[in-house]
Amino acid sequence: MTALASTPEDFLWGSSSYQRKPSRLFLVRSVPSSPAADWEQPQQDAKFAEIEAKKALAKLNLDARLRSQVQAFLSDATEPDSTVPSVALADEDTVILHWISGPTTIEVEIPEDGPLYFWSTTTGDETADSFEGSYFDVMMATRAALGEVAKRVNKNNPSWREQYLRQ
After folding, report:
1. Which residues contact 146 (CB under 8 A, 6 or more apart)?
2. Could you tell me if 96 and 73 are in contact, meaning their C-beta atoms sit under 8 angstroms apart?
3. Nearest CA to 107 among 131, 79, 137?
4. 46, 73 in Cβ contact below 8 A?
5. What is the pTM of this model?
6. Could you give the angle at which helices 64-77 and 48-58 cross, rounded to 10 degrees?
7. Band of pLDDT at residue 24, cut at 50, 70 and 90
8. Residues 6+ positions from 29 with CB-CB distance below 8 Å
9. Of all helices (H) and strands (E), which one includes residue 24?
10. What is the DSSP letter of 154?
11. Are strands 127-133 and 18-20 parallel, antiparallel or unpaired?
C-alpha cells in the first residue's frame, strides 16, 4: 500500500529514497458499508448459537450419524440467549463443543458411540464439574451451565452477537 505523507516529519530521508517511520504504521480494516443490515436477522433469531455452531460443524468432515448427534445436542442444549461454542474434531469419531466466557469454561465431548463427557470450570470461585453420563444428564448440565454464562454475557455485553458476526 502506498501512502502519501502530509509533512516531511512523516518520512526518514535517505540519499536517494525515503522510508516510512515505523512509529507511523497503522493497521487499516475495512468495514461493510451497512453493517447493521448484515446483523439484524441473526440477532433476532431465537437459535443464534445453534445456527452459528452448525455452520462451523458443516466445515468438519464428519459422518452423517455423528453430525446428526451433534446437531441434536446443540438443538436440545442451547437456548435463545446461549453463546456460540467453538466446534472441533477430537478424533474421527468425537466432536468437542467448547464455550469460554470470562471465568467460565464449558466443554462437551460427543462421541459417535458411547456416553457423553461434560466438563465445566469457573475460576475465582474455584468450581469445577466433570462427569461421563447419559445424553440427558450431559444435556441438562450443559443447559444449566450455559444459562449461567448467558446471564453474565447478556448483562455485561448485550451486543455480543454483533461482535461475534464482525469476526
Report:
1. 77, 78, 79, 82, 83, 99, 106
2. no
3. 131
4. no
5. 0.69
6. 160
7. very low
8. none
9. none
10. H
11. unpaired
C-alpha grid cell for residue 26? 497503522
- Under a CB-based contact definition with an 8 Å cutoff, are residues 154 and 81 in contact? yes
pLDDT at 96: 94
Pairing of strands 104-111, 127-133: unpaired
Residue at 149: amino acid letter: V
Estimate to the nearest angstrom the gap between the alpha carbon of 8 and the chain centroid: 45
The structural domains of the chain, with segments of one domain joined by +, span 46-166
Residue 119 phi/psi, 5-degree rounding, is -145, 130
Question: Could you write out the three-class secondary structure of 69-134?
Answer: HHHHHHHHHCCCCCCCCEEEEEECCEEEEEEEECCEEEEEEEECCCCEEEEEEECCCCEEEEEEEC
Mean pLDDT, the chain, rounded, equals 77
Q: What's the alpha-carbon Rg for the chain, to the nearest Å?
A: 22
